[in-house]
Structure formats: structure tokens, C-alpha cells
Amino acid sequence: MHERNTISGAGWIGILALAVVLLAVPHLVSFSQQELLVFLTINVLLVVSYRLLTLTGEWSLAHVVMMGVGAYGSALYSKLFGFPVPLAMLAGAVTAGLIATVLSFPLFRMKGFYFLIGSFAAGEVIRLIWKRFTDPFGGPKGIQRIPGFPEIDLGFLRVDFYQPENYYYFVLAVVLVSLWVLYRIERSRIGLTFHAIHWQDKLSESVGIDTFGHRMLAFVVASFFAGVAGALYAHYLSTVNPNQFNVDTMVYVLIWTIVGGTSRWYGPILGVIALTIIDEVILRGIGADQWRPLLYGAILICAILFLPNGLESLVIRAGEALRGRSASAVTGAAGAEQE
Amino acid sequence: MTSASKISLNRRTLLCGAASAALMPVVGFPRASFAQEDVVKIGFLAPLTGPVAAWGKPGLDGCKIWADWMNEAGGIEIGGKPHRIEFASYDDEDDAGKARAGATQLIRESDVKFIMMLGGNSWPGVEEIAARQGMLVSTLLPSDLTPNTETLIAPCEVHPIYNVTGVDWLAANRPELKTAVICAQDDALGKPSVATYLAAFEAAGIEVLGDPLFFDPATTDFAPVMTQLLAKNPDILCLDTCYADYVHPLCEQAFQQGYKGQIISCTLDFYQRIVERTSKEFMEGVIFQFPDFDDKALNDPRINFRKPNDFYAEYVKRYGATEWSAVSWEYSSIMDLWADAAQRAGSVEPADVLKAMKEGGKGKHAFGEARWWGKDLFGLDNALVGDWPVVVIRDGKATIAEFRSIPDWWDKHGPLLIKHMTDLGQMWSQRT
């Protein structure tokens, strides 16, 4: 099938509108919501990278730990070895990719439910290593006073990345580039092969596709970008500890992904944005701090009952409705002309 | 005009109405307000949900009583003018990221003059913003203190150092007990507490059998943990500073596995539930460190906490006796200290209050006169330390057995505590 690569006029308007929103949003929200915006943008990268792995049909419980590998790696490279922070971030993400490469060998001997459990065990081993070895990982208290992203001082312009609005723009740039790379991977031959492995792995093998290699590739690339997310997180918050990357956090990633939907690249993004706004802005805003877990749970149940295909199904339905309306308008206009 | 009978409620109207109602407080209701200069806002940044909520929420409940009483009495007089106290709370879920967002909201949006935190996991997220804004912050966990945290104080609970008083009292009153085992969750709260108990047992001549047992915080089945501990046949079972979610099943397991010896623990939150699930006989003599405030011993003139018995009665009336926990009174006692310092300073500005608070190197701690201390252990003297109660369960009820002096113990055994803290990597200079 020939893939359409051109963007329509309406598409360009949509992209422009989105760009304006993304650039303007820090100036439209409160100070504390600016902080949330930074974490939300990082979490967008986390869930989209997770989706890349799920394309091969495997659901991992180690993805948040891979984020932690990036965070710990970047923190240690900058703090212990004196790497400049941008280089430490990259090195942290590469470390996450390398750890994923090593883990691939035992983990991809398993599939489905067994892979899920295996990935959980592998993640716990890494997390317990952080806890057990106070030197260099800081034990249960983790690593503190991690250097922040360096200031930019051009005399006439000073950018302090401790300020959330400045760090947001930096994170946004990194995340947009990462999303573009992940999107291109999915739309490439490799991405199609991931889909093929998901739906017909035996058939794929029979036509010469290296299923192990492709699964490993998806795991490594997803872990690399999770590592990027972790590095962005660590240098903003100045602290990492093993509890931040435990299974509870992983459950949130799963919820965001499932509620958003996984059949489109934007599904998990919708999930993480909608649920974060509900939990952190609306429920806190109405003063329901202590009721948040209960209300959040109720909203999740409703989402699963009424939107079993995720929030993305709303976008798909809206798109179909719009196309249907414009098609009927065209048909109607043509009919009128004939008369 | 539309008559009431003609109004129909379809699903769309209902959903729109519900969404609007939900969003109204976010968008903003018109609110009745007092003159800004007469209201002082205090931030409460602690876990209100999740596994550590037991050390946050009861404290906020106590603060509500404190504020109601204070405001009913006309507020705090600062600079010759009465001021109302309002609390602004934020649930940090014991997470540094949430704590950072919360601190930003409290400082930059709510304009609070002082923030009370549980500390621990959440403090690193707040450290830089507090330093940049010069915000006075209190923690219940002095292990957050370092030489750089000049605006962070531990004015109530010098956790875990006060645990030495329980062991000291036990050694003096039950000298026949010679061996102990220790277990704790493997986290930032468990480890310094284990170091303290190791030092206290060593100072008291009590042998600790084997290494302390650190279990993962994700543990839900405590039967194997208890089996392993009881296999050493100890005289004393030490539950360290375990969260309530661990202390309860650990006690139940000890009961079910037939343990008959002495139990000592830092906290015993909601102990009535443990008594119900085990027995009064089993719990008789259990030692911990946090009294119920209906205890008559708290009416002693040296106690600085205002009307402790009335406070407990009001707390029980509002929230129920089983909701009382170790922290129910602690944040309120910090507020007593803050209010006293603000009155003396004639200002609510954080730097002025801190200066007044530390004037003369002494302060009015809830349990009596205390001194600002901590340089040897935390790198600066920002912990207020004095006497601390030893609490014993008698006939199913927590009772203060005695107040013991932490500084006296420290003067005799300080190097021992530093040795065990160093062995477990808990000295401020060892924290990465």
C-alpha cells in the first residue's frame, strides 16, 4: 500500500495550533502547574517509548526501572566523574540501552506472560542493587544534590534551568525530537516488522525475519528513550531514589498507556495528559487531596467500561465523523450541481 | 420564562453540569476573605495518602484543632496586632517531585510563612527551592539536616535518637533481658533507627543476636520475617521504626508464633487495633515512644504543650480514638514553638522567626526545656533535643512510664552512636 507522506492544509493548521499551545502553555498556568508541566512532558516521552516496545507484543514491567537506569547513570556520570550535564544525560540514556541489550538475552527467551514476570524480576534486581550498595548508589536514600542543567548566560540573556518554564522548553525540545525519532521508527520497515512480529511471529520467522533481533531492538530503543526521560527527571529534581522507580510507578505507566490506547502513537500521550490533569489539577483543585486515590480509581473504571479502546478511540470517531460530514457535504453539493 | 416542570435533564446536561461543578473550584469561586495582613498562612506539606499517610494526615488533623483554638482565642498577637492562622496543605505522597510542586504552590501561590514537612524522601525535592526563597521549613526527620540546610529545623522529633530512652529504661527496669533481635524496612527511615538501637543496646549491655534483618518495603507476608527473628530465641524483639502497615502484621505474627518475650518499637500507631487482634496479655509491657495525650503525666508544669489532655479529648471527639497516631500532636507542638518565636520576633518573616527560635541556644520543646543540638551528628545545631517519654502498654492502654534525657545519654555514649551511624553509612558526610 502506498503510504501518504504529505500533510494537508488542515494538518498544517493543526500543527501550527499545537505549536502555539505548547509554547504558550507555561504562561497560562500557575507556578506549581509549571512544575507539573515539566514532569508531564517527561512522562509523555516515558509512555511513548513504552508503546514502541508494546508494538512487538511484549509488555515489560521494567520500563520505569530503565528510566531509573538513565537517571542514576546520568546522576553518577555528572556527580562522580564530572561529566558536563548534557553529556551525562546522553551517557545515562546509552547506559539504559546497554543494560537493556544485556537483559534481552535472558528475557527474550520468554514471551507473553512469562516475559512480563521476567522483566519484573530483572527490574527488581536492578532496583535492589541500587538499594543494597550505598556506594555509589546511595542506598535507600538514593543520590541527592545532583547537578542541575547548566545556566546559559549570554550577558543580555540569562537562562536558569532551575526555573520550571525554562526547563520545560528544554524538555519539550528533547521530547519532540525523541517523539519524531520514535514516530519515524514506527513508520519505517522496522516498525512494520515489529507489528508483524506482534501478530504473526512464527510466520515472520518463516520468511526470514530475525524476531529475537527485532524484539531486542525495540527493547533497547525503548529503554534508551526511557533513559533520556530519567536523565531529564534526575537533573531537574536533583535527587533519585529506588522508590521513585518501583512497581507502583510502573502501574501508572501501564494505566496511562491502557487508558490512552496503544493502536495509535498518540494514544498513550492522550492517556498521560488526561489522567495527570484529572489527578493533579482537577482533583487537587477541588480540595479532594485525600480522596484522590478513590476518585482516580472510579474514573479509571469508568474509562475502561465506556472507552475499552482507549481515549484514542474518541479521536478516531471524531475524525470519522468529520470525514463523513465533509464527504456528505461534497456529495450534497455535487447533487445540487447536477440538478 | 421556563417553568420548573418543563426543565428536562438529559445525559448531556447532566454531564455538562457535573463537569462544570467539578471545574468551578479550579477556575475559582468568589471567596470570602479576611484582610490579607491579618492572616498568616502556614504550609503543611506531607503525605496525606499512600503508605506513609499515617505520619502526615493525623498531624494535619491535629493542626486544625490547634488553629481553631488559636483563632477562637483571638489569633496570635504579632507586632501588637492579632493574626489569624490558616493552614494550606498539599499531599506530597512522600515523593520528591510532588513535594517540589507542593512547595512551589505553598510558597509562590499561597504565600505561606512557614512549611511543616514529614521529610525523608520528599525533602530533597524542596531543598533548593527552600534555600532560594529563604523559607523556614521543619522536618520530623533530622537525618535531612546537613551543614547546608540552614533554614531546615527539626524542632520536635529528633528521630531516631530518642529511641535510646526506651532501651535505657528497659535496661534499668528489666535487667534480666540480655539478648535482642532487630528488624526494619530497608529504607531511609529504617537504617538510622537500626544504628540507634544498635548503639543503645550496646550501651545497655544487651547483645544483638545476628545482623539486623532488613526486609523490603514491598513485603506483605511477615510470617517468614518473624520466623527468622524468633528462631534466635531473643529476650527482646525490636521492631525499630517500622511503618504502621508493618508493625501491625509483625505483632500479629509474633502473637501467632507464640512469642512471649519483650517487644520494643519506636512507634505503635493505632495500637488499639493490635490489642484487638492479639490480646491485652500479649501486648502488656510493650515499649514505644509516643504517648496518648490523655496521660496525666503530661500535666506536669515542665510540659510546654498547651492543654494536652483537652487536645486529646478534642482529637478523639473529632476523629476517633483509633485515629490518634505518633504525629497527631507533633506538628501542633511545632506550631507552638513557631508562634512563640513569631511573637517574640514581632514578625512572621522566616528569617526573623528562625533567629528568635534559636536565641540563646535553647527552646521550649513539647516535653520541656531543650537545647538546639546536632552539629556532631547532622553538621549543624538545628535539632531541638531534651527529654523524651518512654511509653509502656499497661492493660491495653499507652501509659508514660518515665521521661528520660536524650542529652544525658548522648553525653555518655555519643561516640557509640556515631560509630554505628558511620557503619551503616548514615552520617551526613556519608550521604551522597
Automatic annotation (TrEMBL), chain B:
Signal sequence residues: 1-35
Keyword annotations of the record:
Amino-acid transport, Signal, Transport
Q: Which PROSITE patterns match?
A: TAT
Q: Which InterPro entries match?
A: BCAA_transport, Leu-bd, Peripla_BP_I, TAT_signal
**Matching Gene3D superfamilies:** 3.40.50.2300
Please cite one Gene Ontology biological process associated with this protein.
amino acid transport
Entry annotated with the keyword Transport:
yes
Kindly name one Pfam family recorded for this protein: Peripla_BP_6
Top-level division of the source organism's lineage: Bacteria
- Which residue ranges does the record assign to the Leucine-binding protein domain? 40-394
Question: Which family does the record claim for this protein?
Answer: Belongs to the leucine-binding protein family.
Q: Which PANTHER family does this entry report, sorted A to Z?
A: LEUCINE-SPECIFIC-BINDING PROTEIN, PERIPLASMIC BINDING PROTEIN OF ABC TRANSPORTER FOR NATURAL AMINO ACIDS
Name of this protein: ABC transporter substrate-binding protein
Organism in which the protein naturally occurs: Pseudaminobacter soli
